[in-house]
Each structure stands twice: as C-alpha cells, then as structure tokens.
Amino acid sequence: MAEEQGELHILQPPTAGHPPLDIVAVHGLNGHYKDSFTAKSKTGKTTMWLQDLLPDKLPGARIMTFKYDARAVASASPHGVRENAVKLIRALRDKREDNALRAASNDKSHAGIREISECTKGIVFFGTPHRGSDDAKWATLITGIVSTTIGRPPSEFLKTLRSNSEGLMKISEDFRPIAKNYAIASFYEEHVHRVLGHLIVEKTSAVMGVSHEETMMMGGTHSSMCKFGRNDKRFDPVWRSIRRAAKGREESSTT
Questions:
Q1: What is the Cα–Cα distance from 93 to 74, expressed in whole angstroms?
Q2: What is the C-alpha separation between 203 and 190, in angstroms, rounded?
Q3: Structural domain for 231, as ranges
Q4: Domain presence at residue 2
Q5: Which of 56, 104, 167, 206 could tie 188 with a disulfide, CB 3.0–4.6 Å?
Q6: Residue 53: what pLDDT?
Q7: How large is the C-alpha radius of gyration of the chain?
Q8: What share of the chain in percent tops pLDDT 90?
Q9: Cα–Cα distance, 174 to 4 (Å, whole number)
Q10: 90: Cβ–Cβ under 8 A, 6 or more apart, which residues?
Q11: Rounded to an integer, what distance in angstroms lies between the CA atom of residue 48 and that of residue 41?
C-alpha cells in the first residue's frame, strides 16, 4: 500500500513547561521527508539532525517534517508548489488544534489558516532557488522524454523551478510584500555538483536580497548542505539561525 502524501510527521513532540514552538522542515525536488535531512557516516551510521541533534539545542520545540510528492519523474500528482503549500498550512493548522497550543489564549478566534501566518516568526532556507535554476531546464527536457515513455506528464515542480519561470515569479511577487514580517536566513551551497561540475543553485538565486536577511555559505553540495552528522561543525550556525528565526524579525540579527 502506497504511503499517503501531504502529511506532517512529528519527529519530536512538544515538551510541557516550555514556550510553544513548532519547527517544520520541508524538503525540495526529488527529496524525502527524512532522507533529505539524514547524514550517513563511512561506518554506515545515520544521523537525522532534526530528530537526533536539534531537540538538544531547542528543548521543548515540536519538530516536524512535511511529506509530499516531489518526484521529478513518475509523480502520481499533477499538482505543484501552491497546492502543496496550502496542504502544508492546513495540516499544520490541524496539528496545532490537536495539541491545544492555543490553550492559554482567549476564545475570540479559532486556530485557523490566518493564524498560521500571524504565528510564523521566521524561515530558514537551504539552497532554495528563489529565482529558479538553469538545471531545471535540462531536467524538464530529460524528464519530459522519460514521462512520455511511462505515460505521465513531467512534474509541475520542474516547470516552476526553471529560471525566471512565470510560476516562480508569481510566487516571489506574492511573498515579497509579507517577507518583512518574518526573520529570514538563507544558506547557499559552497561546492559544485560532482557530476555536473557546477552549483545547482547559484548564490544569486538562493539569496532573496531583502534587507533583513541573514546569508551564509554552507559547505557541501546542493544535496549534502542540509545533512549533518554528530560533531559536524556546520550544524552550529544552522541551529543558531533557527533559534534566532524563532524569535522573529525584531530580535534577529541583520546583515
């Protein structure tokens, strides 16, 4: 039986006695809700930093990952960024209701989608192609050929992620007016792809360019920049950025 897509998976439940804090990790194209954040050592030992490392740094936080169908090829879903974004927000709203995170507030309003926006304090990006990636053009062509063979259309995500695509520009236009409401940190990849010989997402695309955004180069390729093992020094600036983002823009440092 196939696993359901569009789910929030709780990796670390909230702890009583701590201020309520939800952290939601969302993987990228062809990613996996756990594997995208899991490092594997030479001895075969795995470390899923969201579950194995982050709880010690941010005690009390509820940590979740969002699972959705982001396959570039053979995806069973014809939907793209916007549809999955709505599903994520609704799933988060339902989790918040189930765990009574608003128990201390008054009863003037119900915990709904609007409140998710109001309660969000910050966003941390890892190699996110805000302006797309030239590699998506080639990937669209290749997967288009494969999709024709297997009888399924190319992923909507690929179409959106092409550099300066209409869909991507629309998403950026929608987000920029509200970006000022959130603390934002963006990590961009340092090392080129071993096969392609260049960066998957250039710094110019991975950085939004808003005045209050924290930016930092992260060691690793596009796929390894978000995988940290124990004693990995790269993890330190990551958890600190998440902690600052959780405080909101006013208390976040700016660069």
A1: 30
A2: 9
A3: 7-249
A4: no
A5: 206
A6: 98
A7: 18
A8: 42
A9: 29
A10: 113
A11: 11
Among residues 40, 58, 93, 74, the alpha carbon closest in space to that of 238 is found at 58
Question: Is the separation of the CB atoms in 77 and 29 below 8 Å?
Answer: no
Taking CA atoms, 16 is separated from 95, 101, 102, in Å, by 16, 11, 13
Does residue 153 fall inside a structural domain?
A: yes
Question: How many distinct structural domains can be found in the chain?
Answer: 1
The predicted structure's pLDDT at residue 158: 63
Strands, sheet with 7-12, edge to edge from the N-terminal-most edge strand? 7-12, 62-67, 22-26
* Chain position carrying tokens 């940190």: 185
- In this predicted structure, what is the pLDDT of residue 154? 53
Summarised one tens digit per residue, pLDDT across range 14-63 is 888 777 899 999 998 888 999 999 999 999 999 999 999 999 999 999 99
Return the residue matching tokens 């509200």: 178
Beta carbons of 200 and 127 less than 8 angstroms apart: yes
Q: Is residue 255 part of a domain?
A: no
pLDDT at 2 over 70: no
Kindly tell me the burial class for residue 190, based on how many C-beta atoms sit within 10 Å of its own C-beta (0-12, 13-18, 19 or more).
middle
What is residue 229's predicted lDDT score, i.e. its pLDDT? 96
Distance CA 55, CA 61 (A): 7
